[in-house]
Specification:
59% helix; alpha+beta; 6 strands
Length: 360
């Protein structure tokens, strides 16, 4: 049907733009944060893109839910402003006629959101957590970044390298500060590299440098020049990896009926359900009253979305604390929003006959 095809095409065109903007904002925000981590030496530079991709996959369900809501809302709002909706109303269509094309547009997104929320997002969280745990388990030298001072995990050494050599096999202009038995030691070297010996011990090998050793506040310092100096890299036991609730597969959440697992399940199921309800709420909320301002409905719609999202978070927390049963956490907020949807449809539907009489 021409009416449905035209609406779906407009929804899709708007959705592509909205999703691109939301994704760009999310990726930019995460990229700035991760570049800060890389500059501080928290993560290696080559891990930025890996964690960025996993973070984008984690937030995709929320981005797609917002895309569906904003696409339907802005498309129908423009139709009101251009008087296209008035023409359709006068031709005999009711507000409920828009439900079917909205559903045909949103349902494929809803299924995608459900797949992401229940399967792919937990997988992305798990991979990101495992990767960060592997980074934390590395030795001190492995996480050194050029141009950044890095303290050892035992807080007894500070490392600094200015840059990598052209062939990337060594680091240039190395600085190591250490403190043992109350005596401070500083080593500077023109070159350095990491070496693993036969028994598995790792050493930081410094070439063509000097070592300064002495007591702080005392003139008793010893200066030693060397061509090759090896500093043993202390190993430490890595902590056991404990998966977060957000990374637990959905099937495991269903098997283990603890309040925390119920709370996470409430959130994962709530995202696609809220996306469906919001896409339908956008139909009556797209109504524009010229006397109230051209953007009032958009402001109210965003406020409604924030209230909806916050209520889902609150009920998730209550389920996790055992204050309410899981069935109430699953249904209460969505039932309230369905009541809001029914009220808005009834109110806007009552306006349509008035529009028809005025046009006649």
């Amino acid at each position: 049907m021409l009416f449905h095809r035209a609406l779906r095409r407009e929804f899709m065109n708007t959705g592509v733009v909205v999703f691109a903007v939301l994704l760009m904002i999310t990726v930019t925000t995460q990229l700035i944060r991760m570049l800060g981590w890389a500059a501080q030496g928290v993560i290696p530079p080559d891990g930025v893109l890996i964690l960025l991709g996993l973070a984008a996959l984690r937030y995709l369900p929320i981005l797609l839910a917002l895309t569906v809501f904003i696409s339907v809302l802005t498309t129908l709002t423009r139709s009101y402003r251009d008087s296209e909706m008035v023409v359709w109303f006068v031709s005999g269509r009711s507000l409920l006629s828009w439900i079917r094309p909205v559903l045909s547009f949103s349902l494929p997104f809803i299924f995608t959101i459900a797949l992401l929320s229940l399967v792919l997002s937990p997988w992305a969280v798990e991979k990101a957590d495992v990767y960060r745990h592997q980074i934390e388990s590395r030795d001190d030298v492995s996480v050194i970044s050029p141009g950044v001072f890095k303290e050892s995990k035992q807080a007894d050494r500070v490392y600094f390298v200015e840059k990598l050599t052209a062939d990337l096999s060594m680091v240039a202009n190395v600085f190591v500060h250490s403190k043992q038995n109350g005596r401070a030691g500083v080593m500077v070297a023109a070159r350095g590299y990491a070496e693993t010996v036969a028994n598995g011990d790792r050493f930081l090998v410094l070439l063509n440098g000097r070592r300064y050793e002495g007591q702080p506040g005392s003139a008793d310092y010893r200066v030693t020049e060397f061509e090759r100096y090896a500093v043993r890299i202390e190993t430490h036991e890595s902590s056991k990896y404990i998966p977060s609730i957000s990374s637990v597969p959905t099937l495991d959440l269903l098997r283990d009926r603890t309040p925390s697992h119920h709370a996470e399940l409430t959130w994962r199921v709530g995202i696609p359900v809220s996306a469906l309800i919001l896409s339908l709420i956008a139909v009556p909320m797209s109504f524009v009253n010229p006397r109230a301002g051209r953007s009032l409905n958009l402001i109210l719609a965003m406020l409604l979305y924030m209230v909806y999202s916050n209520l889902l978070s609150v009920f998730q927390s209550w389920v996790g604390q055992g204050r309410i049963p899981i069935w109430l956490g699953w249904t209460a907020v969505h039932a309230a929003m369905l009541a809001v949807l029914a009220f808005l449809l009834w109110r806007r539907q009552s306006v349509v006959p008035l529009i028809r009489r005025r046009r006649k």
